[in-house]
Amino acid sequence: MKRELRITSDGSPTVFSERWNQHYHSVHGAFNESMHVFISHGLKASPAQPIRILEFGMGTGINVWLTCKEAAHSQRVVYYDTLEAFPLGEDLWREIEIGEGDDQLLFEKIHELDWERENLLASSFTLRKMNADILSWQGEANHYDVIYFDAFAPSTQAELWTVEVFEMCFRVLKPGGFLVTYCAQGQVKRNMKAAGLEVKALPGPPMKRQMTRATKPIQSKEQATS
């Protein structure tokens, strides 16, 4: 599977996958997109302390890196699980220059840490990388505060944006927990609602009108009327 490093408009790196004919991040700015969708409307929007985050699509590791940096800045305790069916090879991630000094060392550590186990990435940040497919993965029910849903677009991998996948997201989220994604496609939002999630459109990152946040209700309709 051929993949190559590319630079986005804000100077931050992404990877282009020839197999999927897709970039891993917005070409209008990988950092800008991740900060807006996942940090501002994901990590910062959750009051949970400690906070448990699940990421679908580790990709380059930029979301992990940005979350770890922001968590240190805001003194958050984070348990971060990330799934990736096709991890980057060392030959590729070694090429990625994401910052200088400690920033670059942190990025490299993310990729060097063992898979399938909990690793202490920083003093209050625990990372578990799982080489797994979203379609076959089964997580613990009512476990996560936030899901970063960062899979390839529905036009490329429609099977990852189905009612069944969002039912799994509903199951692993805590009541009141939520999913954030760059995608605002109408059918995707209908699939989320069919899975029981409450859906809200939010302003999108640069060059994109909207993004989506989908919340697991604290009470089901049945509980509310009982």
Task: Characterise this structure.
- The protein has 226 residues and is α/β, with parallel strands linked by helices.
- It has one domain (3-220): 3-Layer(aba) Sandwich (Rossmann fold), CATH 3.40.50.
- It has helices at 30-43, 62-74, 90-93, 102-112, 163-172, 186-194, 221-225, and strands at 3-7, 13-17, 22-23, 51-56, 78-83, 118-122, 125-130, 144-149, 173-181, 198-203, 210-215.
- The strands form two sheets. It has an eight-stranded mixed sheet with strand order 6-7-5-4-8-9-11-10. It has a three-stranded antiparallel sheet with strand order 1-2-3, with no helix packed on it.
- The radius of gyration is 17 Å and the shape is globular.
- 38% of the residues are buried.
- Mean pLDDT is 90; it is low at 221-226.
CATH superfamily: Vaccinia Virus protein VP39
| Number of DSSP-assigned strands | 11
Regions with little confidence, pLDDT below 50 for 5+ residues = 221-226
Neighbour order of strands in the largest sheet = 6-7-5-4-8-9-11-10
Cα-to-Cα separation, first versus last residue: 53 Å
Order of helices and strands: EEEHEHEHHEEEHEHEEH
Write down the Rg.
17 Å
Largest sheet report: 8 strands, mixed
**What would you say the CATH architecture is?**
3-Layer(aba) Sandwich
- Fold-level CATH name: Rossmann fold
Count of alpha/pi helices? 7
Strand percentage, roughly?
25-35%
The CATH top-level class label: Alpha Beta
The dominant shape is globular
Mean pLDDT, to the nearest integer, reads: 90
- Helical amount: 25-40%
Label the structural class: alpha/beta
